[in-house]
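Handout, section B. The chain below has 328 residues.
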Amino acid sequence: MTTIIESAQQKAKSQAQRVYLEAPIPSSASGSDSKKTSGVTVIVPVFNEQHGVTTTLDDLIENLNATHRPFEVLAVNDGSYDQTGDVLESYQTDAPLRVLHNAQNRGYGWSLKRAVLEAKYETIAITDADGTYPNNRLGELIDAMENHDMVVGARTGAKVAIPLIRRPAKWCLTQLAAYLTGVRIPDLNSGLRVMKKTQIKRFIKLLPDGFSFTSTITLSLLSHGYDVKYIPISYAKRIGKSSIRPIHDTLNFINLIVRTVMYFKPLKIFAPVSAILMFTAMVGAVGSKIIFGQVADVTAVTLAMASIQTLAIGLLADLIEKRSPAFG
């Protein structure tokens, strides 16, 4: 009888470590409200990483053990269609590892949000499963959280293997984000960072399901005056094939940056557009008088009215944003 009971308990424990999701993300996770700041939850989204995930987990757990602090690792299998799920199921470790399986591919951000809601600790760290990020620097980033709201591993170190074709778009996006937030941003969307669970939950309704999660949380915190620290890191060549689509994802990033800042600082968008329209109206009026001898009054008045209306909409949006309750 004792053997049967022990076997049942062991089976229940094993099933508890492997969670399969068929329902939408819950609004809150049971038992997750208590803040346990002494430890850290490390989230690793995984999609078709059968060749590199075990190496990443081995390296990650070894470095977390070296920090001498409580930790857990949540590996989220985001509907992989290769052997990733089987590799994760068969992975053996004495460390506190939980494997979460999405029933289908829901996206990088969706996987992170799900894991955040199930995280045991208040301090949340994220890294990738493709071996690109130096997990040996994770302890340094976690320690820096004592004096900051978010710590980001900025890919500006000595060795950074970002493909040349992606660098111009990345630079433009970073400069746009820096202008809209008014803060210098060394790395907008680094996937190695440490955050606080309460802050992620505050903005969770705004955070997207795709790769734009990291960019959005960066913009959200900076727009609200949170203290974000950047620590230079190296960035290695990934193991396996990337699932990023350069053109499609770049356009999505631009849309995301503008949309996010529209939530928090709408005048950063509307005021420049209004100024451009008014300037065009004035140039058109003066130019038409000089060239044709008469003012193109209809065009000038139309542009001027559009400028005034754009500024009015921006002021109204800014007023609504300041009077609206916080996200989350």
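Note. Residues 267-323 form one domain. Compare this with the example in section A.
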